[in-house]
Design goal:
heterotrimer; A mainly alpha (about 325); B mainly alpha (about 300); C alpha/beta (about 400); A: about 325 residues; mainly alpha; two-stranded antiparallel ribbon; 12 helices; 4 strands; C: about 400 residues; alpha/beta; 9-stranded mixed β-sheet; 6-stranded mixed β-sheet; 14 helices; 15 strands
């Protein structure tokens, strides 16, 4: 109970933080150069992916190494459904990308969720690699070099926000605000989901799954629901990536992308929804600073991850949650529900 | 027909090398329950160790013992100062720890040896080819690799199946709690297993170096396939890893040799060829779902 | 061979990237520009870490060398170089290109080596309109269906060297050949060139053998070769794959001669050792190429870089030469795009590889040479095709 509540803006302070954060991000393009508008867009996309992963790892205790696959798959969906060089409106591409990611997740999840722990990690990795090879080794999506796609049109209710019609300095704005709206929407949806029955059952599964089963919950179905929702969110992020860049390549699918998402939530703090967002901004900020100050960016990144894993165990948000351990099944004093 | 025999030989040699890499991984995972993504980087470091030994001493014979010794030393250090604190941590933390190690190992390699490609020459005495068919020969060194891999496999098998430490390891692979329950010095077991696992990966790198040459990120492509071997063989099972590695070596080799013929026929053939290229992953998923103890392990 | 023995250590790399950080920081906080004194900013987006680090390194040395030869000025304007390590990671390609284009506001982007990263750069520069010169990556799309008025290539298209090799073996009367490569874009594009070169001269490719990129277990492919009944095997591999393939090919004792696109033996002859002896390849550069420009270029490069020049150095040098010609024509007014691009497209450059020019799709037109690996050198033995231009299919420039 306590844990789920922490994931929400439960007090007026939480809502105020959300409002201030959103307002600051909304104001940012007015003061930042186009490059930083683009960079923050990238960070917001990373935050969306991390939010989805948070639902799995933070809320349910399922660590997946195949989550990047749904992200990349969704980006490729935009490429595959857009007829040669013709942009489709976002209200067509976004649902399509999310639906494909969700369906793929139902299929993969229905199998993968029969396993747990290490085995779950390996099954998701294997499925992720299969999707990777489909796009890497076949001509379906441009092969190893990747492919260009027509960026979806930001159009609704007969209005169209065409970046090309804007002055150069503002061309990144429409995509930026679309990303911001989606990020806030995903955050709110997740916040309500986690406070709902689903969220409480997931939390219960994380702490003690057999107990939840004993209480009469079909935990498999709840986990599958979480897996599918998380993947649809990853799909929304992948779709956003295609909108942001207009370019897809197989590396979007690989397991390293999944590892990156895991790193982001760990960096931000695994105990809270906001941690995923904080983590994403910190991750891309760190990358930017490391690139500017050193020629050995990878060395900096490697040490930064070590520091986070060893010292900053609760991430930047610093909120401590009871951790899911290997022997989580052992009776614990923690009372839940 | 003789081409087929040559292909079997190829599969055997590739599979044996896979076994060396995967055996360390399966030991570490089976006993310590740590997911070591840096195992491929250890392979890379073994290969670079061989390169450095040959460059300074001119002798490839020294490379294998040096790589094994370096592997033991590195393994002891890593276990004692890093991994020990991660046994009871989430898989998430282990994944990220070893992900960080990949970056650090590769950058250290870049700092110390640079980014160039280097060859590791085979000793003059072995620098010849043995005809397998009338038009296809096999480098003598490949037979040496097969021989050394078989010897190491036998030694490993003896250690695990016939010694006291081996019995503890087998027990621990099945039920990690056993070690503590039996009042055995768990720290020593963990240290030993980790050092042996690291040494095996580096030995594999040293053995492979003359065949593959050494270059940055050379271990990356072997990491995932090694995990497949570990899973199919059954976690912690040396004999399982052995048979799984041979199976994958053969499936992969025969798939490469005969799969493309299907693909060129188009339609259903292309689907079969695509499935063949993913065959090992499909096999892994099937094993994970229906026989989590592995195809060959199956002790429980 | 001396060239590959020299190690690329930390010190060189630090020298190389020195100043890059400061330039980047300056870019983050734009200072009021003084119109006349403002230098032309040239962004180098190249691999300085990972598998292709040495290539990025040599390209950079050559570019700096040319600018230094011109007294630090091209077209009367100071040149300021900003370097960025692209790590050869396609997924970071757009972000990295944006760093140079939008954050550091470079006027010209020179890059890169990896084809996947090139596609990302291409996307970025065609959107921003920044002048881009490609000093290596051979993805054919860049000067075919995706060609753009602000993108030039001084290196090659994947199609070119392989076409040259195919033409050479065809002219020798070879009727049946096999093609071996990785199953990825560069392999397929090279294969297309080899096939067309061979077919134009009376031969044909009867079998293509492929391996997943970037795997290096070549044995299953090699074992099939004796059964194919071909007179020659052509191959495209690069880097670690090229080393292993040539070594494994020799060890397999195959009686069919091996030829290839030049990258099969380029920069990797030392690790290949005796196994490469006698392998013929085709490329737009080679060892022992005699022309006045090359004779001054090679010692100068060695003095600057501490190692022998290679094809990558030549490509980088020509990228700088091309930029120099363009800037000269517009007297440093880089915003005069129409005249700048026309001058570059019409440029006739005296390259260390021989005379080069540019096709309508702004792809380099150059001689493809036949080389034979002899004693650790890719000795030029003749000209495969003179002034070979990429077909530029689908380019509407």
């Amino acid at each position: 109970m306590i844990d789920t509540h922490r994931m929400l803006p439960q007090s007026w302070r939480g809502w105020a933080a959300l409002a201030v954060g959103t307002a600051m991000l909304a104001a940012l393009p007015f003061v930042a150069t186009p490059y930083y508008v683009g960079l923050i867009t990238t960070a917001m996309i990373g935050a969306m992916l991390a939010l989805g992963v948070h639902l799995l790892v933070g809320a349910t205790g399922l660590v997946s190494l195949g989550h990047g696959a749904f992200y990349g798959l969704a980006a490729y969906v935009v490429y595959l459904i857009s007829p040669e060089g013709t942009a489709l409106p976002i209200w067509q591409t976004l649902p399509a990308a999310m639906a494909v990611a969700g369906l793929a997740a139902l299929l993969i999840g229905s199998l993968a969720l029969r396993t747990r722990g290490f085995f779950f990690l390996m099954v998701t990795l294997a499925f992720g690699q299969m999707i990777f090879f489909v796009f890497h080794d076949t001509k379906l999506g441009g092969g190893t070099d990747g492919a260009y796609l027509a960026k979806p049109l930001i159009a609704a209710f007969g209005l169209e926000f065409s970046p090309a019609s804007l002055p150069r300095a503002r061309r990144a704005w429409p995509v930026y605000y679309v990303a911001l709206v989606q990020l806030v929407a995903i955050y709110l949806v997740l916040a309500f989901l986690l406070r709902s029955m689903l969220g409480r059952v997931l939390e219960g599964i994380k702490v003690n799954e057999p107990r939840m089963q004993a209480m009469g919950f079909n935990t498999y179905r709840y986990k599958l629901a979480a897996f599918a929702i998380a993947s649809m969110i990853a799909g929304a992020a992948g779709h956003m990536w295609s909108l942001h860049t207009g370019f897809v390549n197989p590396e979007l699918i690989g397991w390293q992308k999944s590892a990156e998402a895991l790193l982001i939530i760990l960096l931000g703090g695994i105990g809270s929804l906001a941690g995923a967002i904080v983590g994403a901004f910190a991750f891309y900020g760190l990358g930017e600073v490391a690139q500017m100050i050193t020629e050995r960016k990878l060395l900096v990144e490697g040490f930064a991850i070590l520091v986070v894993v060893i010292l900053l165990r609760d991430g930047l948000m610093g909120i401590r949650l009871p951790r899911w351990r290997r022997r989580a099944a052992a009776p614990e004093a923690r009372v839940h529900g | 027909m003789s081409v087929f025999v040559a292909q079997l030989l190829n599969g055997l040699q590739y599979g044996l090398l896979l076994f060396l890499i995967a055996s360390g991984l399966t030991l570490i995972f089976g006993v310590l329950r740590v997911i070591n993504l840096a195992h491929g980087s250890l392979f890379m470091m073994g290969a670079y160790a061989a390169f450095l030994v040959v460059r300074t001493t001119g002798s490839l014979w020294l490379a294998l013992p040096v790589a094994i010794a370096a592997g033991v030393a590195l393994g002891l250090l890593l276990e004692r100062f890093l991994f020990r604190y991660f046994y009871n941590r989430e898989h998430l933390d282990q994944v990220l720890l070893t992900f960080a190690l990949i970056l650090l190992f590769e950058e250290s390699r870049s700092l110390l040896v640079g980014n160039d490609f280097h060859s590791v020459p085979v000793p003059a005495a072995l620098n010849f080819s043995v005809p397998v068919t009338d038009a296809f020969s096999y480098a003598a060194y490949r037979f040496v690799v097969i021989g050394v891999c078989l010897c190491l496999a036998a030694a490993l098998f003896f250690w695990v199946e016939r010694t006291k430490m081996g019995a503890i390891i087998r027990a621990a692979a099945e039920k990690p709690e056993m070690v503590e329950v039996l009042g055995i010095d768990a720290g020593r077991v963990h240290l030993t297993v980790f050092a042996v696992g690291t040494a095996l990966a580096m030995a594999a790198g040293a053995l492979a170096a003359p065949l593959t040459s050494v270059y940055p990120n050379m271990g990356d492509s072997l990491l995932i396939i090694s995990f497949v071997v570990v899973v199919i063989g059954g976690l912690g099972s040396i004999s399982g890893a052995f048979w799984a590695a041979l199976l994958i070596g053969l499936v992969d080799t025969l798939g490469k040799a005969y799969g493309p013929a299907f693909a060129s026929r188009g339609g259903a053939g292309a689907v079969i060829a695509a499935a063949a290229s993913m065959s090992v992953y499909i096999l892994m998923v099937v094993v994970l779902l229906y026989r989590p103890t592995g195809l060959f392990g199956g002790r429980s | 061979m001396e060239r590959t023995k020299i190690r690329f250590g930390a010190a060189t790399r630090r020298d190389l990237l020195k100043g890059a950080a400061a330039a980047n920081l300056a870019g983050a906080f734009p200072m009021p520009a003084i119109a006349q004194a403002k230098p032309v900013k040239v962004g180098l987006m190249l691999p300085y870490s990972g598998t292709f680090a040495q290539l990025g390194e040599n390209i950079t040395f050559a570019i700096e060398m040319y600018i230094a030869e011109k007294g630090g000025k091209l077209g009367g304007r100071e040149i300021q170089i900003v370097k960025l390590d692209d790590e050869s990671k396609p997924e970071l390609g757009l972000q990295n290109a944006d760093r140079l284009i939008k954050r550091d506001n470079v006027d010209v982007l020179i890059g890169t080596v990896h084809s996947g990263v090139q596609m990302a750069i291409h996307k970025a520069v065609t959107e921003s309109g920044t002048l881009c010169i490609v000093p290596n990556a051979g993805a054919v799309a860049v000067t075919r269906n995706l060609c753009a008025k602000n993108v030039f290539r001084t290196s090659f298209s994947n199609w070119q060297p392989a076409y040259g090799m195919g033409a050479v073996v065809g002219k020798r009367g070879i009727k049946k050949a096999a093609w071996v490569t990785w199953d990825y874009a560069a392999g397929a594009e090279s294969g297309e060139g080899f096939k067309q070169g061979l077919e134009a001269n009376g031969g044909q490719v009867v079998q293509t053998l492929t391996l997943k990129f970037p795997e290096t277990n070549f044995q299953p492919l090699l074992a099939q070769i004796p059964g194919l009944g071909v007179d020659v095997v052509g191959a495209f591999f690069a880097g670690g794959g090229a080393i292993n393939f040539v070594k494994d090919y020799a060890a397999a004792g195959l009686k069919v001669p091996l030829v290839g696109s030049g990258f099969l033996t380029e920069g990797v002859l030392a690790p290949q050792g005796a196994a490469a002896e006698g392998v013929e390849t085709a490329l737009h550069y080679g060892d022992g190429l005699e022309n006045p420009k090359n004779n001054t270029f090679r010692p100068a490069f060695k003095a600057k870089a501490g190692r022998e020049a290679d094809v990558y150095a030549v490509q980088g040098y020509d990228a700088a030469q091309l930029l120099g010609i363009g800037l000269e024509a517009v007297k440093g007014k880089i915003d005069d795009e129409g005249n700048l691009y026309r001058a570059m497209r019409e440029a006739k450059i005296d390259s260390p590889r021989g005379p080069i020019s540019f096709s309508k799709s702004q792809e380099v037109v150059h001689n493809i040479y036949v080389r034979k690996a002899t004693g650790g050198l890719n000795k030029v033995t003749g000209v495969a095709v003179e002034n070979l231009a990429d077909p530029g299919t689908g380019c509407k420039l």
